[in-house]
Amino acid sequence: MNTIAFRPGNYYISLSITGTYCELRCPFCKGKYLAGMLNVSNPELMPKILSYYYRQGARGFLISGGFNRDGHLIIKSLHLKIIREFKRNHNVIFSIHSGPVPNDLLELIWSSEIDFIDFEIPPSNEYLRVVKGLKSHTLNKYFEFMEKASSYSKEFIVPHIVLNSIASNVDDELRTIEVIADFKPRLLVTLVEIRNRNSNYIDIDRIIKVLRRARELFNEVSLGCMRPNEFKVKYDEVVIKERLVDRVVNPKVSIIDKFNLKVKGACCGISRSHFKLFPTLRK
Questions:
Q1: In the chain, what is the greatest distance between 2 CA atoms, to the nearest angstrom?
Q2: Considering the domain 4-281 in this protein, what is its CATH number?
Q3: pTM assigned to the model
């Protein structure tokens, strides 16, 4: 299977339902990534914003935003109602960064007809404490959530895992993807930790080892949007050349040219049945 490049751009829009507000303010992000998303914290404006971008060619929307101190998205039922109504009148995909929400909220997300959950599973308990600031959480909480979400549909959850973290090691990462594989998701999205400028060390051998094992365990593997620019410059080529991933997000144009990659204007988490909704781009 040839690797496919994904460029979400204006075809798959990231929305923050909390604006720039985040209660958790974890050491990793401190809310800075929310500033790059469209603010839909006012539900009354959300239908107009969705309609505008749909008319401009968007066929997918990521619902994201700030998390509460329990480590999941702060979401109102009115937002979910608007999503359901919009989906019923438009041929469009919705995904959500929910975190491990309680079961009653998970049921509301499913009922809203959101297509899938982009779900980050921490590579270790230490990662939860050091990177996410969730000292009372454990990996089991995330595995239990994945089991519950998968019970609705295997298509409903797309697990993500961060590799090369300062708060995990290669054995942690390998153990975690082994457990994820037991749930038989349609796709695993791999990310590479972005550290500060003084410590952005990339252990490519460690990353390759995990990707090779993921290649054996999963039907499809994606190299997702979160990875250092240095990784794109030095190592995207290695990963693609060794056929370790089926999907790669926002590679350099030189990589697209070198490997003659097909480019979809979409999020890498969409199912292949939804490819037809999104354009094939030149680069």
A1: 49
A2: 3.20.20.70
A3: 0.96
